[in-house]
Amino acid sequence: MIKALILGYGFLGKSLIKRLIIEPVPGLLIVGIANSKGYIYSSEGIKLKDLKDKLEENKEFETGRASDLISKDYVDLLIELTPTNIITGEPGLSHVKKAITQGIDVVTANKGPVVLALNELKKMADENGVIFRYEGTVGGGIPIFSLIDKCLRGDKVISIRGILNGTTNYILTRMHFEGLTFELALREAMMLGIAERNPTLDVEGIDTAIKIVILANSIIGLNKKLSDVKIRGITKITPEAISAAKENGMTIKLIGSIEDGELSVEPRLIRLNHPLCVHGTLNAINIRTSILKNLTLIGEGAGESTIASIINDIYDVITHKSASI
Amino acid sequence: MIKALILGYGFLGKSLIKRLIIEPVPGLLIVGIANSKGYIYSSEGIKLKDLKDKLEENKEFETGRASDLISKDYVDLLIELTPTNIITGEPGLSHVKKAITQGIDVVTANKGPVVLALNELKKMADENGVIFRYEGTVGGGIPIFSLIDKCLRGDKVISIRGILNGTTNYILTRMHFEGLTFELALREAMMLGIAERNPTLDVEGIDTAIKIVILANSIIGLNKKLSDVKIRGITKITPEAISAAKENGMTIKLIGSIEDGELSVEPRLIRLNHPLCVHGTLNAINIRTSILKNLTLIGEGAGESTIASIINDIYDVITHKSASI
Q1: Which residues of chain B carry a pLDDT beneath 70?
Q2: Chain B contacts of A273, Cβ < 8 Å?
Q3: Pick the CATH number of A2-141+304-324 from 3.40.50.150, 3.40.50.720, 3.20.20.140, 3.30.160.40
Q4: Which of B97, B211, B224, B253 does the annotation list as catalytic?
Q5: Which of A215, B8, B190, B264 could form a disulfide with B230 if both were Cys (CB 3.0 to 4.6 A apart)?
């Protein structure tokens, strides 16, 4: 059995546990669950079904430093789901580095460590013979990294374009179909819980830029930082601009792109019947390759669908370990 | 080296060889190329670059039965690309069966054997310890089977809907945007080489039904035949029906679907801003799963993009063989 620690007990951590209660992953034993307040640990495996009450309330957590559990004495796999910090990457970055150096495999959906240090972490993982997977960081449940890794072998990705942020896409969709102003659509998104209380990272295009950096470094093999991305958000888009686009069979979408090694995020005119032109909170990723040419993937870019990515990554770890034993 | 025989030397066979000249697949040696007229064979590997002249003209082919080359004495891998026959599956079905019983891995883009006998062929492949891959049979280069196999582990596909035939989608697109009649749009498609001279299989929905059967048996684990599909084609769709749909923000598309174990192909109303609503010769496949919920893939459903599927399948064979040696 692969003994796993779930570090981070927010929306994704709780959703993952709920899913594992419905359907366990064969070969996976959750021995630890931790957040910033403390942890639960059992070397025999935590009885997830009994966790029900504790799920919402952090009841019966031992106080103590959860990161002490990141040790080969306790776990084989770290599932890192702490909140994203894009400036320092912490606490995720330290968690991931500690795990890798201890020979512990890592699955994460935390964008912080991956946007700041993907190439370094991959190199460390190779040197330490561990698996490092981060499918959940981009496009929620859309399995973009696995797809390119496992389903397009022999092909080569040349460029990538995408709608990678559900919040801004919701706002632009409401502006397009209802003629709302940006301010009104944003307020509505906040009321519905689609936009966060501080929506700056989303509406200024920074969240999209983070994902573009991860895609560029992971798929195109570049070595880019957030500061390499030309970023323009959606705050200045007027209903008039969208209405003019609409009259011409187009709309305005926030498009992240990697073309000729250049990374950008900006509002762009797009034909309404273009495959990339999806609405609501949907995400869409278009890749252009040598052989296949164009492939577009569309799905929910956040929320519970991300659990599909995390679980597939966990399967990768388990398959790899059982093959190497 | 994996010694491969390419059987079938039409559009796909020639395109594959052109691609292998540009970029060889490491570990793959093409020892035979054959069609109904004859074959070329070299145990040292055929010099693909020297084939240039012969590519178009079948020059210097030995006369003889190409299927005699399907023997472990000559080859490890059969790349079966002969023309599709959906009634008998031949000659593909015999080629594939002979290969599997001889312990030869098989990669095919031939829908005939797969629609008629997928479950039987899979069972034979398991019993004989060989790999049997058929990614190119549905959706051209869209890697639907690999994706579900390798990128959505732990998840479960519940239903599938798709636009799976580029010819009919082109016709419906022209009817929608230009107000053409079915007859006129079909004639245009034939002139452009998008529709075949005998377009019955496409416009009557049979080609889509074939793909729906393959998807149902491969992905949902059913055991369906073509006669189990409720099929209605696009020949009776009028410009007036499309125009009425258009006025309501919709159009009519030929949708293949698998829902609650029922297979159908029929023209359906679809919102113009639905992710599945793609135009021109594009294909789109939407899957609904337990965890991820909705994922849509869009790409060219035919032509050279299919080579991406064939090459990825070849990589699967090579990886598997080198792991098991």
Answers
A1: 52-60, 324-325
A2: 272, 277, 279
A3: 3.40.50.720
A4: B211
A5: B264
